[in-house]
Every structure is written in structure tokens, then in C-alpha cells.
Amino acid sequence: MFGISHPRRWQSEMDRLFEGMLGPQAPRWVQGGMVNNFPPLALWETPESYHVEAEIPGLTLEDIDIFVKDREVTISGRLQGVDSDQGTLHRGERPTGEFKREIRLPMPLDPDKVEAKLSHGVLTLDLPKVETAKGRRIAVKDGSASP
User: What's the CATH architecture for 34-81+96-134?
Assistant: First the structure.
């Protein structure tokens, strides 16, 4: 497989590939730059609002900033790395650095009614729609009857 017949050589080649991705020459998303597509999230809609669950393990309330305007929601913050005073880092596979996730929704939101909760590494956002964006059922009257 992959032109490598010996299992140890295959393991060595895999280690080399991962070192290339996660070592000192790693892409910015791993080594302290802007983290892309973080946090991973789920988004769903009900007639009254949108709901978001975002996985942000290890972050505290102070590490997270949420901004809501019109149809846009921005979740941003900073992922802390290992403190260099703790010793020599041999693997740095956890993303570190600033992150910013922007979500554009089809309908405007009511920023005064937005609720955000953080529990066990999951950020939950309840994003109520503006009253006019919710829509309403219109009763149809019989127009054939004379006044």
C-alpha cells in the first residue's frame, strides 16, 4: 500500500506526513493564527427563532464574544495553547489562536431577545426572529358576497 511494504516504514512515513502538517511549518490554523471553521456548529430553525449549538471545549465565558446585528451572528474568541512554562511541547495538534465564525441567516433577528448559554463546552444560542419576520396566517374573506 502506498508503495511501502514494511509496517514500520509505513508508520514512519505516516509520522513524517503528520509532522509536516502539525510541526513548526504547520498551517496558520494550527499554530496560533486565525482558526477556520471553528467552532463546529449545528443550526436549525423553528417558526419563532433560529437555534445554534457550537462546540467550544475548554473555553470560559470570558473567552467568548457574541455579536448579533440584523441577520448576522458572530461568535469569536481565542483558543489558548499550552503554556511554554509547562515544559517542552512535542505535539501541538489542538488549534490555537483567534477564531471568528460568522453566520448569515435568511431573516432578521431580535438582538434584545437573544439568549446565550455555555454548559459543558457547548455554547447554545437562541436567536428569536423579529416579529415582522415571523409572518402570520391571513384569513381569506369571501369576496363574492355583496356588501
Answer: Sandwich (2.60)
CB 103 within 8 A of CB 70: no
State how far the Cα of 31 lies from the Cα of 34, in Å rounded to an integer: 9
Q: Are 77 and 56 a contacting pair, CB within 8 Å?
A: yes
Burial of 39 (0-12, 13-18, 19+ CB in 10 A): buried
How wide is the angle at C-alpha 83 spanned by C-alphas 80 and 86, nearest 5°? 145
Q: What is the three-class DSSP state of 10?
A: helix
The domain segmentation of the chain, as residue ranges, is 1-31, 34-81+96-134
pTM passes above 0.70: no
Residues 81-134: pLDDT tens digits? 776 677 887 777 777 788 899 999 999 999 999 999 999 999 999 999 998 766
